[in-house]
Amino acid sequence: MVLVVGSTGLLGGEICQQLADKKIPVKALVRKTADEAKVAQLKGLGCTLAEGDLKDPASLAEACQGVKAVISTASSTFSRQDGDSIQTVDLEGQLNLVNAAQAAGVEQFILISFPDTEGYDNPLNDAKRAVEQRLQESGMNYISIQANYFMEIWLSPALGFDFGNQAVRIYGDGQKALNFVSYLDVAKIAVACLDNPAAKDKIISFGGPAAHSPLEVVQLFEQISGTEYAKEFIPQEGLEHQYASAEDPMGKSFSSLILVLARGLPMEMEETSSTFGLTLNSVEDYARRVLGK
Length: 293
Description:
With 293 residues, the chain is α/β, with parallel strands linked by helices. Helices cover 44% and strands 16% of the residues. The strands form two sheets. Strands 3-2-1-4-5-6-9 form a seven-stranded parallel sheet, with helices on both faces. Strands 7-8-10 form a three-stranded mixed sheet.
């Protein structure tokens, strides 16, 4: 039995789907306030539902009973409710989950994380590093998948990449490359890590199959759509000012993530793809999918 925490989110829901496709029994942690349609979706996959919350250690202790592995995708970044914050969810909540898993005799813990935003104060980054450190001390087989920037999020209208209206926002000069990754592939590697000797006690850097600069991504979208995109550049100075003026932990974290995106985050993915037998979605695959091409 695999416990999926964050099961009603984009990534967590996909992990539940892929586990169900492989006939792996799934226990999905859901909150009382979870979206009813998403809960119904999990039920439709055959998931066992466990009501709980990362802020409620007792509910986690119960949810971890009879579980061999935990996969946690939960974060306060996109779906916040009353009482949710980086401190209570991404730090204390995840530590609560590690403690509960350890106490219940869980054999494997898979954390979805992201690479270190070195050089910038980032409360979300600090939380991820603290949880990774706790996992290393837990005695459980741990894996932290440090995923690059999700293309479905960072190359979407919500963050200024408005392909529907052929208008994009470019952070910095747009010339630094990074491996945008699909959440579908992050789900794939999380599932592939289960009971896999190649994934024992490791921190895995994970991105898409190739590095592209934001300007190269725009050019690709232009070629596929046959339309030129309007480009709004946010200069480095503006990004630094936004970072310096951010007063709350979430704002500080988001600003630092944008600064790291602007400076680039390339990864070599051939070895990891080969080790886990993965065929990764490219930015072109994503562009054709969202453009209907």
